[in-house]
Design goal:
By secondary structure, the protein is mainly beta. Among the domains are: 1-63, no CATH class; 198-306, Phage tail base-plate Siphoviridae RBP, head domain (Immunoglobulin-like), CATH 2.60.40. 3% of the residues lie in helices and 49% in strands. The protein contains 2 helices and 30 strands. The protein has a 14-stranded antiparallel beta sheet. Strands 21, 22, 23, 24, 27 and 30 form a 6-stranded antiparallel beta sheet that branches. The protein starts with 10 loop residues before the first strand and ends with a strand.
């Protein structure tokens, strides 16, 4: 015998009721407050005054949170995590769909209902729009008044962090659309802003021990600082002041002449009075003083100094 279709008004099987409004499962006997699962084509209430949504709802009214699966209906499909009480002013949810020429996915955090504490955050993922914009993700902060700030974003050009919000930076880190930005290129690493080391010319009477025969190099850091690295040898036996080349330009200069320690090896004979040290001037050549020795020596240092 083939399939038979039987139309009934209500099918009641234990804790489950199926009727024209949907499928309803109860935690215990069907009653007010006992609805735990609802699958319905439209939002309404059951005969026991339990409210349900259009879609799938899991959780009782007394639960600390429920789970709702809501169809798109022309918009984004959503998975919500509502709190039945008024503890939240924004329901945390995961949404996905098409908005204009973008396909996107949105993870929204919760916000309290208490006035003055209703700030919350979002994590946004966009597709390539197929016209001019690349795929992108954004980290968003929404304040108590509902104002949205994009704290950071990433696309095929790298990271963009809004430094005025994240770090309170006031240096020359760039501006876009009125927002101060701290840019990290995709291939530049998490800290170095894409700049390679600049070689400083050797002083007469020295031999560079760094890669490529360099004895001193500098690199600009993205937080108003310069990284200086040096390693070289010499044959002079008397205390000697070696003058190396100048810094690349004025943006590498300290605001006052700086003095740094310089480690030496070999056979120094008067370190106590000669005090090996490095002078980084506000302009001009970098000087390194080495101590007297019986046969020259080697020395090095690696340090940072601010430019502001």
């Amino acid at each position: 015998m083939g399939w038979q279709v039987v139309n009934v008004v209500v099918l009641h099987a234990g804790n489950t009721i199926i009727n024209p409004n949907g499928i309803f499962v109860y935690d215990g006997p069907p009653a007010s407050g006992n609805l735990i699962i609802a699958l319905a084509p439209a939002a309404s209430t059951d005969q026991f005054t339990n409210a349900f949504i259009k879609g799938i709802q899991v959780g009782e009214a007394t639960d600390t949170a429920q789970v709702q699966i809501i169809p798109g209906g022309g918009g984004a499909a959503q998975v919500k995590f509502p709190v039945p009480s008024l503890a939240l002013s924004n329901t945390p949810n995961l949404a996905g769909g098409v908005s204009g020429s973008f396909a996107d996915m949105l993870l929204s955090g919760p916000a309290l209902a208490t006035p003055g504490f209703r700030d919350w955050v979002q994590f946004f993922l966009f597709s390539n729009d197929g016209v001019s914009s690349a795929a992108r993700m954004e980290f968003r902060y929404i304040d108590d008044l509902g104002n949205i700030s994009i704290l950071g974003s990433y696309n095929n050009t790298g990271w963009t962090l809004n430094a005025n919000v994240l770090f309170g930076l006031t240096g020359n880190v760039g501006w876009a659309n009125g927002i101060q930005q701290f840019l990290l290129p995709a291939g530049g690493g998490p800290f170095i802003n894409g700049e390679s080391f600049h070689a400083i010319s050797l002083a007469s009477g020295t031999t560079g021990l760094l890669s490529g025969g360099n004895g001193m190099r500098v690199k600009k850091m993205p937080w108003n600082a310069i990284w200086m690295d040096m390693e070289f040898s010499w044959t002079a036996t008397a205390q000697t002041t070696f003058t190396f080349g100048s810094l690349p330009d004025a943006t590498y200069y300290p605001n006052v002449t700086r003095h740094f320690p310089f480690d030496v090896t070999g056979t120094p004979t008067a370190v106590g009075t000669d005090n090996p040290r490095i002078f980084v001037p506000t302009s001009g050549g970098i000087q390194v003083i080495v101590p007297a020795s019986t046969a020259g020596g080697t020395g090095g240092a690696s340090f940072m100094y601010p430019t502001n």
